[in-house]
Specification:
- Helices cover 7% and strands 28% of the residues.
- Among the domains are: 85 residues, Nucleic acid-binding proteins (OB fold (Dihydrolipoamide Acetyltransferase, E2P), Beta Barrel), CATH 2.40.50; 46 residues, no CATH class.
- It starts with a helix and ends in a 7-residue tail after the last strand.
- Strands 1-2-3-5-4 form a 5-stranded mixed barrel. The chain has a 3-stranded antiparallel β-sheet with strand order 6-7-8, with no helix packed on it.
- It is rod-shaped and about 130 Å long.
- A hairpin with a 5-residue loop joins β1 and β2.
- The chain is mainly beta and 204 residues long.
Amino acid sequence: MDITAIINRCIEKALSRVRLAFRARLTRITTAGGVQLAQLGGVEGETLQEAEVFQQYGVTSVPPDGAMAIVLPLGGCTSHGVVIATEHSQYRIKGLKPGEVAIYTDEGASIVLKKGKVVEVTCDDYHVECKRFSVTASERADVDTPTLSTSKQLIAQGVITGKGGMSITGGNGITATSLTVNGIKIESHKHNTPDGMSDGPLNG
């Protein structure tokens, strides 16, 4: 009797009952709970119900139907499988260079960290909600838009320069300690009158 052969057959028999990680396709996902639960179709034709979808802390996403998934059967048991990775070739951003990183959706919104320390954001609407918002641009900041508006006060610590004129309506007009228009200081400007030079502008 070959003891080694018997032991090998026993090991092979035991291992044959242990399922390794496998590919599946996501058909439905539930996001209401603390951990997302997915329904998947396996490569062997079986259907997995309520498989937990594990993701990294601080980052979450809801894969669309049809996404490919890698399922890891805990303890080698298919019914205890958990999803450890998902991918959807239709929506994945292609052509990235080595080292670049992207976050994207199936609608085309994306944030791409590109070579050269460039951050590229693509979307239709961009919303930021916070108590304080600070931007430091050591060289310059450009805004290419037909309209730039603020709901309340706008404060400039330096000179305001305009090339298309200025239109102000409502409120109390312009309040300034010094105002120069076409090279003339308004606060000290006087006019020649039949009675001599006029006084400077009056307050109020």
